[in-house]
Structures are given as structure tokens and as C-alpha cells.
Probable malate:quinone oxidoreductase
Amino acid sequence: MSETVDVVLIGGGIMSATLGTLLSELQPDWKIVVYERLSDVGLESSNAWNNAGTGHAALCELNYTPESSDGTVDPAKAISINEQFQQSRQFWSALVDEGALDAPSTFINSTPHMTFVRGEKDVAFLKKRYEALKDQPLFAGIEYSEDSRIINQWAPLLMQKRRAGEPFAATRVPAGTDVDFGALTHQLFDNLRERGAEIVTNREVKRLKRRADGTWDISWRNSIGRTPGKTNARFVFVGAGGWAIKLLQRSGIPEIKGYGVFPIGGQWLKTSNPALVAQHKAKVYSQASVGAPPMSVPHLDTRVVDGETSLLFGPFATFSPKFLKNGSMLDLFAQIRPSNIFVMLKVAVDNPSLITYLVSELLKNHKKKVDSLRTFMPTAKDEDWELLNAGQRAQVMKKDPKKGGVLQFGTEVVTGADGSIAGLLGASPGASTAVSIMLGLLQSCFPDRIDEWEPRLRELIPSYGEKLNPRPELAQEILAETAETLALTA
């Protein structure tokens, strides 16, 4: 007989850690089990060196403020992303207050968020973006400048030996953050374990099968010894990164039909040179290259990992058919089904610029990658920078009523009709908005319990069920409270 538990979380990343923590807070009597196929949690996309560590609040990311055909800039998506990040900040703040997380500096640190652009067209766009955001309460404090002296004060490495006469501009928000999602993931799982959850590593889930009573049989195999086994669960969450689509397809739920994923890898240039690190205290984003996916927007970042500060530049796109860094070379092809093959072919036909971009990125050697850095930092020297491999991002491909199939950047929760199973597909800004994503999942999968849980949710996330941006006083109050608890610039 297989053991029956209330919840099985597949995958040891930030998503499973967040959902597990929420469920443990809301329903402490439930038995929660986590299965991770690697030797530890947080080793794939949640690992600090596999992502940019940006607390994505749309303070600096241009792709969240698109310019419409009439030249106006719509701030709606940027505001929505910021609202979601504020829920994460509130949740982390509550857990710090409870002692469930360690000192805030072990996983989050104040790091100004900047946008830096060159050329008349991009300067004009950034000015319009600034005008669209400056009066929004969640973007209070945003600054704009075309003055080299001011930008030099904000980020000296951007301005040293920059060509005279070149149009440029920058915005800056002091209240940005750098987040070590690897450390945060470990701390959340450590707290879950203390609260009675079972965290099992070196265990790979092979199959999901729904019983007649609506529960799920989860067939697994241990990586060490290859011992097989089975667990029965009332609810299953598949937070296995790129492998989520494999397991959701094996579950047989019809809701996954028509979905596919396209893997895009990445690399960073990194330096720990103290002289350089001391001159750059910001995450500086710019415009993406023509044909580049939004996740490949170039940025020069301060990173704080394990108490050590360094600088990263990138990402540079790579390609592998693997859905995870520790995946299989057959992943891309093994996902093909009659229900998604047309979608995948349509995406391939409609995105030639993406293929061109990937090929051009693959042809770059170390020197050419540092040449790309020099558009940000004109004084960059090849020998100061080393190359690191980042994580794999499995971008969502899905049916589209008009186009037949589209490549979607972002995250998407796929939920079974009865709410007994759900999985997450996609990537950025997922980790930063994990709390918001999981709150949506709770509402979809546990509609009969959400009202009962609401009082506790409001204790953990004071703005739960509300929007902060339309309420400036409440926004200011909550931003200040979380900043104080997390020891951040408000």
C-alpha cells in the first residue's frame, strides 16, 4: 500500500517552496511531501548563479512598458508586475517577523534599479516611460537624467571614457533589490521541514496517475540505489521547471494539450575585482537586441551571494535541447504530441528573428562578449571577466486563436479541471512574483477553502485582495513597513 498524503510538491525550487510555505501556514495539519530529483533543493533555476537575482518590480525592465503604435507608453503591465512583487515582499517580511527566515541580508539587499539607453530614439522612449511612471505611487522616487555628471554619480562604470556627443539617458529607482533566490529557497524549505514537511532529495518522479477517487498515484525512483516507490496524494503541484511539461503530459490531464516549451540557455560575464565592484551599486537594464527574447535584455548587475558582492553582465543566450541544466538531450523532442506539433511548427515559422539571434549569440567568443559589455562599460577589460553558465529557461509555446501558436515569455499555471493538480510553465519574472502566482493557484485549486484562509492570508500579506497603486497612502505605509523589516531602502 502506498502512503497517502495531503500534498506532494514536485521540484525543489522557489515555486514549490513558496506554495509549501503558504499551505503550511494556512493548513498546518496537512501532510506535505517534497520530491527533488537532484541532491539538494534550489540547484536549478532558483540557484543564485542561474538567474539575475533581480527583484522584478518593473522599475527598470523596458519590456514591461511597451510603446504603442501612437507613440504612447502604457504603464499597466509594469504596475501589475510591481503589485505582484510587493506581495512577495510582504510575505517575506511576515516570515522574517515570525523567525521563519534568517536575517534579511542573507537573501535580499537594497540595490538601485536603473535603465540606461543610447541613441535619440531610445532616449525619447525612456523619457516617455519616465513620464508615464513618475506619478504612479509604486514608482515613487524614480529619477530621470540625460546629464553625464548625474549618471556618473549613479553608476560611474557607465560613463568612464564614453564617446562625446552620444545621446544617452538613464532612470534610477533607489528602492530596487537584489535577491538570492537560492538562499531564500533553502530557508523556506528548512522552515517547512521544521514544521513537519518531508523534503526528499535524489528522488525522481516518473509518472502521475489519477485514481477514480480523484487522488493521484505518484510513481518515483530514488537516484541512489534506483529503488522505486509510490505515494498517493490528494493534491499535486508540479514545480519542476522545464520538466513540468513532461510530468503534466504524463498525468493525462487534457488542459496540457496544445502546450509546448522552447528551451533557451544563458551565460554571464562575472567579475569579483574589488576596484570594479566598488564603483557599481545598481542593476542597470537596457534595450534588447532586435529579435532577442525579453529574458535576454542586457544588464550590468550588482550581485550579493553568500555575503560576497560581485558584478554580472549578460545574459548571453545559448541553446541546448535540455529543459534543465541537468536534463536530457531528448527533452525538446520528447514533448512532441499530436496536440502540440502544429503549435510548435507555427512558432518556429513565425520567429525567424529568434533563431537568427540564437545563432549570432552562439558564435560569440569571450572577446566578443566583453565587446558587448563595453556598450555599457567602455573601460571593460577581457581579463577581468570570467564566463559562467546560467540556468535553462523553458519558454511557453501555446495555442493562439488568431496565430495558431505563439511563443510566450513569462509564466503560466496549468490546472486540472477538478483542481487536484497544477503545474507551472515558463520563466521570468516567476521567482519575484512567486507569491502572487501561488495565491492565484490557491484560489483556482482550493475554492472551497479560500474564504476560510483569508484572515491568515491578510496577516501574511496585508494587501491581499487589494491593489496598492490606486491607494497611495496604503502603498506608502506597506512599502515603508516591509522596507524596515527587510532592512531595505524604502
About this structure: The chain has a mean pLDDT of 93. Residues 3-485 form a domain with the FAD/NAD(P)-binding domain fold (CATH 3.50.50.60).
